[in-house]
Amino acid sequence: MVLVLCIGDLHIPHRATDLPPKFKALLVPGKISHILCPGNLCTEAAYDYLRSVCSDVTVTQGDFDESTKWPDTQVVSIGDFRIGICHGHQVVPWGDRDALAILQRKLDCDILVTGHTHEFAAYRHEDRLVISTGSATGAYSALSASDGGRRPTPSFALMDVDGSKATVYVYELVDDQVKVDKLEFTKRPSGGCGGGALQL
Amino acid sequence: MRGDERWRRHVHAATELRAAGLGRDAFAALQACTPLSTRCRVTMVEPSYAPDEQKAWLKDASNADDDNMKEALRYSAALLGELRTSLLSPQKYYELYMQACDELRNLEMFFREEQAKVRPHADLYDLVQHAGNIVPRLYLLCTAGACYIRGGEAPAKLILRDVVEMCKGVQHPTRGLFLRAYLVQVMRGLLPDTGSKFEGEEGGNVVDALEFLLVNFTEMNKLWVRMAHQGSPRDREKRDRERSQLSDLVGKNLTYLSQLDGLTFQLYRDVVLPRVLEQVVSCRDDIAQQYLMQCVIMVFPDEFHLGTLQALLGALPQLQPGVRVHTVLSLLMDRLANYAAGDHSVVAQMSGVDAFGQMSGVALKVVEQHPEMPGADVAAMYSALLAFSGTVYPDQLEYVDRVLQTCHNALQRRGPITDPRAEKQVVALLSTPLDKYDVVTVLGLAHYPSVMELLQPRVKREVATKIVQTVLLLFCPKQPRQLNRRCCCCSCNEAQHAKQRCCSVLGLAHYPSVMELLQPRVKREVATKIVQTVLRGGTLISSVDQAEMLFSFIAPLVRDMEGLQDELDEEDIAEDASLLARLVHQLQAPGGDSDAQYAVLQAAQRHFLTGGPQRAKHTLPPLAFAALQVDAATWYRFLHQTASELAAVPAAELALQLFLTCAHSASEEAGLDVTAYEFFEQAFVLYEESIPDSRQEVRALQSIMGTLNRCYAIAPEERAALCHKAASYCAKLLKRVDQCQAVLACSHLHWQPEKEGKQAARDEQGVLSCLKRALKIANAAQQQLAVAAKRPAADAGLGPGGLFVEILNHYLYFFDQGCQQITAAVLQSLLELVANEMAAEGCRDNEPLQAFYANTLAHIRQQKAKGGEAAARYDGLQVQLQPQRQPQARPFTALRQRQRQQAAGVCRAAAAGPPVDVEMARKLLDGQTVVLDIRYGSQSVFHRMPAAEYEAGRITKPPRRTVGVPFAAGQDGAAFVAQVAAQLPSRARIIVMCADGGQASEEAAALLAAAGYESVAAMEGGYQAYCQVWGPSGKRRPPAGRWVSTGKEALKSGLNIPGVAESYDEGGNLQQARWAKGLAPGETLPQ
Prior knowledge:
heterodimer; A: 200 residues; alpha/beta; Purple Acid Phosphatase, chain A, domain 2; five-stranded mixed sheet; 4 helices; 16% helix; B: 1087 residues; mainly alpha; Oxidized Rhodanese, domain 1; four-stranded parallel sheet; 54 helices; 4 strands
């Protein structure tokens, strides 16, 4: 059993002061074994914060990251899964499922972790799982602003990987209350493009 | 020395007297019969220095009477004669005087007894005046006078007046002082005070008592003052000290005055105070004035002071400059303050007489009249005034401010404060309000900082540190809020408290100026702490005033500080700036008031712009995003400005991203097409002019594409212009892979996703042309790789082959999206092309690429299996669903198989192996293979090639591995075989090469095979084909195609042949690319 934190688009300090305190309280060091961050940490300080939660942090390049040292895409293997990480601003049209599917095929990953839209999404696409982490700080995004002008809900995902089974816990901050959802994804052992039961 | 000796003797006498072992009562009893005991007489009178006149007096006295009286007076006079000395210091004199007093008390008792023996006091009063020396005489007179009054035989009034006048006889300061001190002491109970038994028609009333005390006081004071002028100026200091010791003697008068029962306020105001003050003022003596003023203030009741405040204070400016008026004032103020504290009605009374106004007026006057008054005293005086106003009028902050103001004015004229004492005083002055009020209040005082200004930087820093510490206490919720006593409201919780405190601290006008005084490093620390507190408390800065205040508080973070630049490195500045950046999100006007918000953010922008580029880089983006979150069309100007500033920093990439975000927002949120276009234009300008490196270019272009794809509001023509521009950028990227991917992204510009209520731009032709361009670039990239002759490294990712698959995916995307121009037929041919590529040598073993390809095919399969309309379009598609690796025929393996078959008798016909292509030939030549060159010379089939040309045309390295045996098709085979056999053994591996790979080589190969050569193969294309791919040095020639770089790469790869670059035409040549195939990794030639 491995806990994997998928968190991204912090945009500290560009668009937010800090992580919501309730999230900070949740993210205590010592429990999480991997952090996957699709990008837009913006500053080194935010990266250092993630490192303080867990030393194994995988980051990809976001469009507002100060440093340009991160790769555009990364693939890590956790449990039986190949997990691809990409910020998503490179994928035009942004947040498009089919376009992301291309990326997922390219990275040949079972789970794709992306961000950029600042909207949490977790869905199965052609037997693969796509997680859009949303913004952990609920940072402003022109994308969501143009879709009705509401502020994005702060969110992140915590994945519990157990062999070929991944349970994704979705943490969202709705009206200053932490809301947790759960969904399960199983990789079919037979083939590369395994399908699985997806329940929300 | 002599004085000391005498003193010792005097004391000895006194001690002896006590040491006689007699208790006080016994002694008194003894004296009652013999007034001064023999023993006493011996010790006290014996001293040989008793002057002559004393003896004479004693004689007179003994003649006058024959009883004890004579004796008593004689001895008393002798004793008192000791007081005539001028040799003793006042302190010693005082001790002597005390001894004498004791004796005189006894004498008084004796007198009383005498009176009982019907000796009238009047006689006694006369008798004592026979004493020869004035000092003993007057002492005795006082004693007798007291008895006279006590006996009720004479009116107190007269005796008092008489005695007090008589005492003028002694004008020696010390002796006079003590004499008069004795006088008041003996008379104090005998004054005709109201209610006393001595009051009466004749005895006089309280006025006489007052008169007596006042006269005595005046005289004593005169003597006291005169003391200062005795002796040499050298001993002045010592004398002053001695005088101070005597002050009590003078003060006694005032004490007794105040103790008179009959002293009414009326009397005090009209008689006592004016006269006392007159004396005090007119005596012009520092010590006297100082002491007496204090004395007056101490001994008389508070209400008197309150009533006569004006007169009392009026005297202060007239005092000598050396008088520490501040101590006097502070004493008075303390008394009044205590008085007010004990009785609240007094406060009103004080306000009635404008006590504060009067006091500050006096202070001002004092300062004006004594320009030479040291700063320390001024400060001390004002600090007393401050304490007074703080105690009496705790709510009148304006008073405090006024005090500070006047103090500042007073001190300013004295220039900067350097004297340590003054420094201390000013620090005390500044600390007073800190202790009395909470720091928040203090810093609201307008003149607090100006007073601080006067201090030396070092001291200023001290005060500032204190203040800042106090403020930080407010910020720190864990600390008990002892300093905050005046705004305690313990009902609210801690968080609110913290918030309140933050707010109230932010209301402090002068806190920043206090902070100014700290060391820059400390200042920065404090500023950091403040920001952190604001952030932690979640305090919202809601008005411009608050924001301005906050920014002046944290100025060390906002801009460069003097003296700090050297200490800070870039990292520190970045740290500061990011703290500021986080702060921006706390700048929120309440209730979404966008005007207020605008003002606040503008203020912030103004401040941030002063911070220099290093900070602006961090602080401006948050500002822009804060602005973006308020939806008001007017904001775009602000945003434009912010982003432009950022571009000027220069932080081009960030600015570009910001412009794009703004464009997106302007287009989608506000629907302002012109504004959005403008933002795009700015972004494009930045892209063209300021993006420094290629990786950033790629990133920026990605964002441009993504944003443009999302913008619906821009008018079609303008949109087309932007798209065109973006597309042109693609071609200018450095790497082909990037170019290709950018063009793919570009295709989406012509195909916006459907969106509710928006007109999505859809241009199939545009999409298709982009995709085609992508293909072209992929081709070129593929060839480029071939040129570099590099095997894709294991970690190189997908390589150029991946581009084909990616392009295929995009074709599929648009196909799925219903792009009509992409038909099944188009897809089909693309699929074949990709399949071909995937089978090629560079791609076959690239696992990620193959996985990508497989995934893509799986996607197609899934789409097909989906059913419905979408799947129907796939029907025409023939997909080879698994990518197949086609094993290439390996020439010698096949040959050997055949030979094995031969040996087994299966097939006896000898034949050469299949021809090898130039690629294979090149590889084989690296091994043991030799080339059999059968070319003829150019002129004729029958002439040998000239040796030079042949040598130059050798394709092997080293050249000895080429064997030249000319052979033409149809030639006699036996001679040829014989010639070959002469040079090559039958086991040799031979590649037969003719000029053009035609008939000749095949024939020659067949002949040799038939002649028993085991490994013979003809080369496809012959010498011509070989030379097209391989250069004379054995290196690969560049393939046809546009040469990207300036030729540098060509030089690097050794292809510096003139005209090579020009010879390649655009578009690439797949045929040639296939020539460039090599062996797969790990594959080796069979031995």
